[in-house]
Amino acid sequence: METHLSTDALxxxxxxxxxxxxxxxxxxxxxxxxxxxxxxxxxxxxHGAREMGSIPAVVTGKLYSELFCTIQxxxxxxxxxxxxxxxxxxxxxxxxxxTRDGELHWYDVFVQKLDDGVVMxxxxxxxxxxxxxxxxxxxxxxxxxxDQSPAGVVxxxxxxxxxxxxxxxxxxxxxxxxxxxxxxxxxxxxxxxISALFPGWQQLSLFESMVSVLQTGEPRQYTEEYNNYGVKxxxxxYFVKMEDAVLLMFLDVTxxxxxxxxQQQQADxxxxxxRxxxxxxxxxxxxxxxxxxxxxxxxxxxxxxxxxxxTGRPNGGVVGLQVLEYxxxxxxxxxxDILIEVVETGQPQRQLLDYRAHGINGWxxxxxxxxxxxxxxxxxxxxxxxxxxxxxxxxxxxxxxxxDNLQQFAYVASHDLQEPLRKIQSFGxxxxxxAGAGLGExxxxxxxxxxxxxxxxxxxxKDLLSYSRLSVQPDQHEPVSLAELISDIFDDLGIVIEQTQxxxxxxxxxxxxxxxxxxxxxxxxLVSNALKFSSIDRTDASAPTVSITARKLSGPALLEPGIPLxxxxxxxxxxxxxxSIQDNGIxxxxxxxxxxxxxxQRLHGxxxxxxxxxxxxxxxxxxxxxxxxxxxxxxxGKGATFRVYLPG
Length: 648
Known about the structure:
The protein is an alpha+beta fold. The chain contains 21 helices and 22 strands. It is elongated and about 195 Å long.
């Protein structure tokens, strides 16, 4: 009996002291149907009562439906009654605020049949659950931090073969950046051997680095270009051992590396330009007084090979030398003063530097630009061009003297040479009038021929005078209406036009910039020639015709066949007015085209057509004075077309 009581007491002690709740329910059945309708709590330990916020004496005897009355409890109540019927145990987890302490608790509840009732064990697993939640939160937080990192993050563990050698690594952790870069998801990567996703990766330097870090424990860092598995770029790698794992972090430095390469290429290019430039390049840095801060000198901080050759100090021998100490003449020739001015004002300067000291002799086109607390000085040796300029100035003076002589010749030709001719013509006329009747036929013929020769020589002198005056271009041009000018020419040639019964016409003609007198001379000569060289033995009934038209040319039109080549070598925006003078006269053979614009060149005898042979040469000189050109097309017996090109 004592043994039985001791055992009962022992079990009761265990029942009350176990760290989980035990609740024993007895089934209440319907008297008619014998179906379970509720459960009554017949026994509960202290732990179970505490979880309900009470003590065993208070809750014992209460119905299940009284103790647990929420909707969720109703569902679990039905399942608990089913345990009585079927004998099948039922397990579930609940989360609720405990009436004991007012905090959220998690419970693991196990229900199994006991006689005509059930026994329910309730274990508080809040501590473990909170630990799991904290761990989950920590993992999520860590993954979020890792995913937000600007660097790729990979944590790997080694995979060994039977011999104990590392043959692969397995992903333990990675972040979003690395997953997106490789084209996989984090879920697809974690837990997988790297070789399963990237076969043959062990041949890369990454594998060798990870093995080395794991075996030696020494971290590694380097930058290299990567071009494998569809990923291309420059990456900076950091490898660190973490227990028996390797943490790899990497940064995509492709843009930075590309910029560095571009900068280096630019620096190399600039260095090559500086080293190979025909321009002398010197960088001066200011030397200032320690107390006043005033510039007292400059130091050569940089010198390119061109400057080395000029100064006679090869391989940058001038670098580090002070300007006034080694080149004192710079204080008196203005070079030093300009250096100071550029540093203090920041305004660039340029001068033609005549340098005659320290073994340097020449003219230099020098430019000064502020650079920090110094000056970038560049210069170009223009000694030869200066000598050429001096020669050109001398030639210009000689040309001016020649032009003066030409003007003097023109004066002599117009006065002194014309005077004897006028006397010859006057005496010849008197001789014909007063003694003509008494002279024989031969003598009268001699006098006539003498008069004709004198008249031709007078015309020749006048044309030469006109041509010589054209050698001096007009100082300025003014707008000239070609329509008005041609109209005046037609009026002045009215008698010739009437005598030849010619038909003359002019279309819409432009206004051009030019010298009124010279342009009149140009077109008067061309129209006169068109009338003069009309056929003298015309077999048809048509009268001479002269028509003048114009059109504007620019761009591709200047490349058309027949357009003078010199017009297409100017600016692409240059425009020209093409004025065509067309006649139906005797024409000429185009093989003589170049010849007809030369002085004294004639294609016909003096007996056929009058003239000095200077007219077309005058035309050519006028268009050249106006920056234009002249050409012609013709066929013998089918007339000619002269085309004048004037800017506009």
